[in-house]
Amino acid sequence: MLDVIIAGAGPAGSVAATLLARAGARVLIVDRETFPRDKLCGDTLNPGVVKLLQSIDLWGGPLASAPPLAGMVLSGPTERVEGRYGDGLAGRAITRRALDAWLLDQAIAAGARFEAGEIVRGPLVDSSHGVTVVRGLVLARRGQHSQTTRVPAAMTLAADGRRSVLARALGLSRHPKRPRRWAFGVYATGIDGLTDVGEMHIRPAAYLGIAPLGGGLANVCAVTGPGPAGPRPEDVVRRAIARDPEIAARFARATFVSPVSVLGPLAVETSAPGVDGMLLAGDAAGFVDPMTGDGLHLAIRGSMLAVREIHGVLDAGVFDGAVARLADARRKSLGGKVRFNRFVRALIEESWAIRLAERAAAVAPGIIRHAVRYAGDAA
After folding, report:
1. Residue 82: CA count within 13 A, CB half-sphere
2. Are residues 287 and 331 in the same domain?
3. Interval 203-253: pLDDT, tens
4. pLDDT score of 164 more than 70
5. What is the pLDDT, as a whole number, of residue 137?
6. pTM
7. Across-strand partners of 274?
8. Does 109 share its domain with 82?
9. Which of 45-54, 314-323, 366-375 has the lowest average pLDDT?
């Protein structure tokens, strides 16, 4: 029997698989997609996740050659502040297509097995003793939806994203009523003024992120509230650009070179990081607003915390306390950043809050620069 089955081959799932396989666990990763595949994301790694990946010997390939990001530019309707990480620290700009495929390759090289085209139907649940225990996964092959396979495992890791089938099936996740935001992402060339920093342009109830990916290519992501302006996704992005004359001028010669992807509603909250026999990781354990750029760091660090508890369960042969210990570890390790993220995402809900933040930026720009360093785990 498998030691661990992992639903989801994104960064959280692949990093967990690598660490578990290196320790000798029998690991199977399943995903409905074939890799490499495209994924809507800001395409940036902050300095914190760079250091984290280096610390577990997951560095090289496209990561090592990815363009460095020295900081972030934050702008409001009237103010603009550039914050650099300093101390020789830098993030990286890399598409999720390249990042995810490389991390999955590292997991396979470490000894994990990967099965593409597997749709997670739900957890394999054992309630025979009056307590819900997950004993593996129920899967269906893509294109063969009526035929299911039960795959048992000693432990299950749900890393199947913000719309986690597993977390929802066990009543662990929900979309909060506020904020309700959607992301519209596209790749573009020909944008004037790209430098070695990412950009976040904050406006009431919306923001526009721009990440330079090298070679004149940039990731452009507009995040807006319910009922975004425009009949088509492309219209939403173009109107987000057009609403600011300075940004619109920089896009005068720009060309969209990919379809516009849509994701939403964004925020996901969870009541617990798992149940006996199954732990949550990555976005399945709670999806934060992408504004602060630390989503991948939170996802991967949370995955590593889950791996520690999985090791404990496999060694002891009992589930007792694993979920509670993971919840406590997540609070201690990630709680401050999650609270910061929620504060920032609440900020743009109110026009008065943005005006107040702009006054602070005008009087004391050091506050904003410190926030950039904190968000990038460089403070």
Report:
1. 9
2. yes
3. 877 889 999 999 999 999 999 887 766 789 999 999 999 989 999 999 999
4. yes
5. 98
6. 0.93
7. 279
8. no
9. 366-375
Residue 184, CB half-sphere, CA atoms under 13 Å: how many? 26
- CA distances to 33, 104, 198, 202 from 117, in Å: 6, 15, 34, 39
Tell me: pLDDT of 120 over 70.
Answer: yes
- Cα 173–320–327 angle (5° rounding)? 40
3-state secondary structure of 21: helix
One-letter identity of residue 321: G
Structural domain boundaries enclosing 75 = 44-94+181-264+348-379
Inter-residue contact 62 to 94 (CB < 8 Å): yes
CATH of the domain at 274: 3.50.50.60
113 shares a domain with 30: yes
Same domain flag for 192 and 337: no
Whether the Cβ atoms of residue 47 and residue 85 lie closer than 8 Å to each other: yes
Confidence of residue 110 (pLDDT cuts 50, 70, 90): very high
SS3 (DSSP) at 44: strand
Number of domains in the chain: 2
Q: Comparing C-alpha atoms, which of 162, 134, 113, 173 is closest to residue 322?
A: 134
3-class DSSP state of 208:
strand
Phi/psi-derived region of residue 206, left when phi > 0, alpha when psi is between -120 and 50, beta in every other case:
beta
pLDDT at position 347:
67
